[in-house]
Amino acid sequence: MELRYKFFLITIASLIITACGKTEKPSVTVTEEYSERLIRDLKGSDFSLVLSDMNVSEKGDKLLFQHKYHVLKVEKDSLIVDSLDWEPVNKSFFIKHENDLGMEIVSSHNNKLSRIAKPVGFDWAVGNTEHGEWEQEKSTDSTSTKSSSTHGRVWRSHHSSGLFWYWMLRRPAYQRDYSTNRVYNASGKTYYGENINGTSRYGTNSAYQKRKRSGFFARRKNSSSWRSFSSSKKSASSSRYNGASSTRSRSGGFGK
């Protein structure tokens, strides 16, 4: 009976070791992120790098993480937009910007370089009186002829601005978001905004991006590679939590 019990314990231990030793699929690595190359190549220029798409796929026996970008360059009061094809990125960089779809992840304007993700233009176009001004947004109540403020002050680009056509195609930028973004950025944090229902106004988790980039969300949902990646993240997070709980339990023993 004792021998059988020992054999059972050894079998269980072997299974645990095997499970713990199982590693997730390795990923393709790059020696330098595209964003860093861009910073070097456009040194002295005003530009923003916008994350326009993300993907996880398989390349041989490895996971391949990719980004698509828009490069916004300001030249002589005109905005030039370059849309790039897929660029491979390191897994850690991919995870860092998973919530930043549709946002600037790198920008350099007026010789100020920033690697903090933010809503597009909030650091250089919105709030710049050379290109526009703040005005009260009003909407007409369908039951009366009176106008009422709905969102506070909103940014309006001047018709004479080279950036006018671009911002007219985008959703409104509100002063409260602009001001809060500045506070967040000053402390090194990304501002995603917050709607009345508590959801994000900007980035991957916003309703705006879900409408605008439905193809991305469908691909993320249906991709087996992406599901595998998401599962590995959850497992890693669970392991860290359980490890921390175990440590707290051991350190919090009863005195004798």
From TrEMBL:
It comes from the Bacteria. This is Lipoprotein. Signal peptide: none annotated. Residues 131-140 have a biased composition (Basic and acidic residues). Residues 131-154, 218-256 are annotated as: Disordered. Residues 141-150, 223-249 have a biased composition (Low complexity). It comes from Flavivirga aquatica.
